[in-house]
Design goal:
Elements lengths: L7 H8 L16 E5 L24 H10 L14 H4 L4 H20 L3 H17 L9 H9 L4 H21 L3 H26 L2 H8 L2 H14 L5 H4 L2 H11 L8 E5 H18 L3
Antiparallel strand pairs: 1-2
Helix pairs in contact: 1-2, 1-7, 2-4, 2-8, 4-5, 4-7, 4-8, 8-9, 8-13, 10-12, 12-13
Length: 286
């Protein structure tokens, strides 16, 4: 299994600096949220799962962050996983991989919103965790840091550099045939991105962000299939993640996103937001 981020570069070049999409109008209703359907589905990067007859596709963490940023999700300081979190949890492999995923999502969030100081602090954490996990030491070379510093004002360039960093991590995992690690990293990145989106929506009610949250239903199913596939030995690192991802899949599956105009139950959407908050608390509990 490998995660390929190469196809991501085409998406970045064509859209990283495009204008934010016009927000859909929201009809104020007590029991429903009305959303207008639109084509925001990305071309997913391929995650080769090892299944002989089926290839599941998942987008990269950066690709998901880019879509949310283009939907108009604003930056808010304090939304990301605290920089102290990694030092507050036990450094088991599962916790370290989940943190690596979360901070990768935060790096994309900070960089795409041109938060330079926060981005460099997060990059330092990614380097520390990668070294603790035994990943290749070239992740934290002076040359890479210099490239980030020189390009910190350019969203296109920063997106390329983040994709390059993710690709190097992927390369180490692929070379060492440690496919399960990729799944855990993705869980951490995906849950962190959903929590950023949830908090953003709670602040400003951006229905474009709400729509992208609901669009995660296909990812949740493929991710659950991956967890089940790699949990052949009843590994606790996978078994603990299954009910969390399964609950999110169940909450997402109630939304029918087909059609020209959508009318979504407020109660169902609130239940989804609550599940996202709970999942984040469970996965990143201190």
């Amino acid at each position: 299994m490998k995660i390929s981020y190469l196809a991501l570069l085409t998406l970045i070049l064509s859209g990283a600096c495009s204008d934010k999409k016009e927000a859909s109008t929201q009809e104020e209703k007590k029991e429903t949220v009305t959303l207008v359907d639109k084509d925001t589905s990305p071309e997913n990067d391929t995650l080769e799962t090892g299944f002989e007859e089926e290839t599941l596709k998942l987008p990269s963490p950066l690709q998901i962050a880019l879509l949310f940023q283009q939907s108009g999700m604003d930056f808010s300081e304090g939304y990301t996983l605290s920089k102290e979190h990694y030092n507050q949890v036990d450094h088991s492999e599962k916790n370290s991989l989940l943190c690596l995923g979360a901070y990768s999502a935060d790096l994309a969030y900070n960089s795409l919103h041109q938060q330079e100081n926060a981005a460099f602090e997060t990059l330092d954490l990614i380097n520390i965790i990668s070294q603790d996990l035994g990943f290749a030491t070239h992740l934290s070379t002076p040359e890479r840091i210099e490239r980030f510093e020189k390009n910190s004002h350019n969203i296109d360039s920063m997106a390329h550099l983040i994709a390059d960093l993710e690709y190097d991590i992927e390369g180490y995992i692929r070379t060492n045939n440690e496919q399960k690690r990729s799944v855990i990293i993705f869980v951490g990145a995906w849950i962190e991105t959903l929590e950023l989106a949830r908090r953003s929506f709670k602040d400003d009610g951006n229905t474009d962000v709400a729509f992208l949250i609901m669009e995660q239903q296909h990812i949740s199913q493929d991710l659950l299939d991956l967890i089940n596939h790699h949990d052949t030995t009843k590994d606790p690192s996978m078994s603990d993640l299954r009910p969390i991802v399964s609950d999110l899949k169940d909450k997402l599956s109630v939304f029918d996103l087909e059609g020209d105009e959508l009318e979504i139950s407020q109660a169902d959407f609130d239940a989804l937001l609550n599940s996202i908050e709970m999942a984040h608390q469970q996965i990143f509990a201190v």
